[in-house]
Amino acid sequence: xxxxxxxxxxxxxxxxxxxxxxxxxxxxxxxxxxxxxxxxxxxxxxxxxxxxxxxxxxxxxxxxxxxxxxxxxxxxxxxxxxxxxxxxxxxxxxxxxxxxxxxxxxxxxxxxxxxxxxxxxxxxxxxxxxxxxxxxxxxxxxxxx
Length: 145
What we know:
The chain is of the alpha/beta class. It has helices at about 15-25, 75-85; strands at about 5-10, 30-35, 40-45, 50-55, 70-75, 95, 110, 125-130, 135-140.
């Protein structure tokens, strides 16, 4: 039996502002369903991803901006960062974690630059949507088996 993660719900305060942000960074719009003033579902999918996000009204009780550390895997983190900057997104500098495995909460353990040897899974950059939902770009050039 497969258990595939297909959808993540992101809490936002302004659906149209969030939708415009995700369009700007290249997410594909799969649906925009409005039932009434209190219920709206917008499904968007990152380029190349099998997993989508949903934003909207009446779909979650979570506080806007409360979702953190959503990972977007990229094969070239320098290019991905440039692309986001070109779309007007504020993106952190590229970093790696002092522990060498997974980034700690906050910035205290961040070391500037690409991971030594540019190890797969070890270089990151961060950005947020207009509400503060946080994303990490993670460079994965070679998948672990």
